[in-house]
## 1
Amino acid sequence: MEDRRSLGIGMETGECAGGPDGPDGAGLPFGCASFNQDSTSLALGTKTGYKLFSLTMVEKLDCIHDSAETPDVYIVERLFSSSLVVVVSTNMPHCMNIYHFKKGTEICNYSYPNKILAVKLNRQRLVVCLEESIYIHNIKDMKLLKTLLNTPSNPSGLCALSINHSSSYLAYPGSATIGEIIVYDANHLNTVTMIPAHDSPLAALNFNASATKLASASERGTVIRVFSIPEGQRLFEFRRGMKRYVNIRSLSFSPDGQFLCASSNTETVHIFKLEQLGPSEEDEAATWTAYVGKMFSAASSYFPAQVSGMMSQDRAFATVHLLTSCQKNVCTLAIIQKLLRLLVATADGQLFIFNVDPLDGGECMLAHKHRLFGDDNDDDDDDHNEGTGIEGSEVTVPTQACPSYAATAALPASGPVTATLTGYSEDGGAKKGEVIPEHEFAAGPVCLDDENEFPPINWCRDGTGDGQARRS
């Protein structure tokens, strides 16, 4: 999947699991899956339309919207927990449709010269990625601000867009042959830096929530690196295994930026901890993993440089072993019911929720499994449940209405926003009195009509690339 937080499968974030034209597409009930920017929602592109799920409970998965208007959706991205959804269908792969799903109306549609490969969005910008060009829109009025033409060939549409309210960094491949990353400031429309991240082409990218770190993986999939933003300095290097040529499906930071998860085409999902251990802390470490790591470090001086360099790198802090491998998936780390959870959506239509121990790590325990289609009481699920002791649950439709885009995007009229504002509700998620993440608020006023929504007119690009739009 985004950035590869999409099985889309943004699953920014972005990442498409089991897309309709991919090898995993045949026979699957959906074409893509993506977690929204703060992992409070899961979007699925299906053969008949798209589905939106709220991720606020472990044992209950609420389907908040089920659209059957656009068939064969292979890109679907939701803007945080607002009513704004971006959809692209295989029937019209050059056209992007933006909907107000709560009202069931189209906000606007734009056409592009070639097939749309990825769409990323935050409070300020909407980015459309084609194979050799990138279009940057102002999300407030959908004005085309910049077109990056003749970018290096990017057949997977790999890119990542930061979600922090004060910045809009865009990361995309700077080369088709090596792992260079271009970091572009989508707010000020200028290149920030170029990062020589890997020797082989890039496979996955993602920013942390505060836009101070960028994680990357190459097509080899053995090493994951984390860089500082905007400086581009290497901060961490993690090795997910010694096996070469593993396909990294997705990368995702935890909300606080202290953990990074990575899924691949193997059955193992790795969680790394971003911490710099001092000598005293290393001496006090008493876990078996720490002991083995110290033994490797001590022995590494006796091996050739390439081997010792590999052995001295940090190992996974925690792991999850899925039931199957070689299928597309997307993972994310989220706080659900005040605890850190790992969520993995797989191309066979299942969502796994694991508990993560932020202190000791180790093997994560399966907390719940949800079927995204059909009945959780199917025979294959019963077999799995017997082995794990975890019961599946049916997908239910909540009665609570979703907030409008204007309600979730606009700043309060009174005074500056801080990270301790309360009273925000996302599909029944954050209750009154809980802290609102700082990145939930846009920087500056959002001029939207509360009645007609964002924006109150329809636009349609003519596909010439000149940035002109016309009323429809």
## 2
Amino acid sequence: MAFTGKYKLESQENYEEFLAIIGLLNAKTDQKVITDVVQDGNNFTWTQSLPNWTWCNNFIAGQECDLQTMTGDKFRALVTLEGGKISVPFPKYHFTAELIEGELVMNCTTPGEKGVTFKRISRRV
């Protein structure tokens, strides 16, 4: 399927600002995040990993799903897939992901006047 593949971080914008706003500045790392996506129709397994840390969510686009944050907090949200873009409302930010010219582009946007959009671009490996 379209998203299936392994991607390595190429560039990112507003990383530290985003981590500060969501209270995870102590989680900052210079390691290159690997994102591994398995898509089977609307079923997804989305895994992000660094040395010594892995975060994984399984979800079905178009359904309310049980998910977890980077810190392991559990929540429930409606995951959508429209126009080739995955959208998930996390508790502290809104996540989107899409493929643009073969690159995985992920955005995490925090709400409010002082909101920030953290953009991460990863290339298929």
## 3
Amino acid sequence: MFSKTSYYQSALEHLRSHPEALEALGLPVNIHYLHLTDRFNFIDITDAQLKIPVSGSKAKGHLYVSSSRGAPFKRWNLQEVLLELRGGQQIPMFKSSEENSDDTKKE
């Protein structure tokens, strides 16, 4: 269900194209099933946040994803993608610009 959503796919694209995150995890990178009982995972009509378990040959962690949309049935806009490794290291990969929601920056 979640794996087909645009915010989930977009977050994985950021992970797969982020050299620092790939180096920290080690190749190959594995994406694991969401823990639906984790209270961080939340989706409603206009907001979504996911905690996606990931692992590689060097480390394990979670990909934190936040996304929103202005109204139901509108396009989802990725707000933030952050990789947090088990040891607590955080690697920001994407954060939407504060000034203008149409402008985004890749970290």
## 4
Amino acid sequence: MTDQKPENISSIPIDEFSNLRITSIWTFLMSVQWSEPWLIGLLVFHVVCLFLTVVTCRYYRAQICHFLLMVGLVYSAEYLNELAAMNWRSFSNFQYFDSKGMFISLVYSIPLLLNTVIIVMVWVYRTFYTMTELKTLQLKRKARREMREKND
């Protein structure tokens, strides 16, 4: 008999840290070593961004600046991924930065985009509230004008 090769050897990678077979986003995130200082700094950065998103809800111009800054950071993610892929040994224990940008999209871009979605939702709410308020004032003004015309 000849040596038989194992059937269906999967080409799905196994990460080096936890030896998990990466089959989903969840297993990918579980395979990341979150105790690395730069990842802790990234998490703190996202918490600060969320805090600024909430705080700037009352300050329209500051919120516009915050929104544009986050959109610019998402836009620069591709360049940041290339830079990090070339220099990962200087700040990380593992090479997380793949050519397709999955890691940077999951841990960097998606949280920033969620913040921008929150800001857009606040803007839409404000717009609807302002339009309702304006229509109410118009109807009150019209009613007062009709009352004056009846009295005259």
